[in-house]
Amino acid sequence: MSVLDLKPDAEIAAWIRGDIDAAYVWNPARSKMREAGGEPLPTWKGLDAAGYVIADLIIARTAFSKEYPDVVTGLLKAHGRSLEAWRDKPDETAAVIAKEVGVAPDVAKRDLSDYDYVSLQAQLGPEWLGSPGKPGRFCDILKRTADFLVEQKSIRSAPGLDAFQKAVNTTFLEQAAKA
């Protein structure tokens, strides 16, 4: 067995050609692979339990954050509202997203249902990003991910845990969660 590090578009192409037997990928690539005969193997819960969390991150450059703090906080507030909309009104939310990305509402709802959505307040807890000055467990996950990417020769070196702890700034997240 070989493990390859491919970008989602390359995974789709390799899947359609029959060059690969399995892939670890996210939507919308996963949906395209499903349409081409793929069957999802729900391994993410086991990976989560083992401490291998797959996450989408919102990142801003330090200089941008300093120059436009209201924009960063506003973006996080909007993100928080979208998380609440999905939790409170999944059918309506899926319909909006379906229209935006050009898929049927049932496809959007199925794809959205595959993920866990962590509220802003929960993200500030020790299990996730942590609060300002108190980095959470997610920094450990980022470090382990970087070490894995070094092993896969996707990157040359990984910084120490302290670099991740310094880089995760939850000040704006805390402000957005309070709003």
Separate helix tally: 11
Contiguous low-pLDDT stretches (5 residues minimum) are: none
Question: What would you report as the Rg, rounded to the nearest angstrom?
Answer: 18 Å
N-to-C series of helices and strands: HHHHHHHHEEHHH
- Count all strands and give the number: 2
The largest beta-sheet arranges its strands as 1-2
The largest sheet, given as strand count, sense and whether it forms a barrel, is: 2 strands, antiparallel
Overall pLDDT metric: 91
- Total discrete domains: 2
Short recap of the structure:
The chain is mainly α and 179 residues long. The protein has helices spanning 8-17, 29-35, 44-49, 62-67, 69-88, 90-101, 105-113, 120-123, 138-151, 161-167, 171-178; strands spanning 130-131, 134-135.
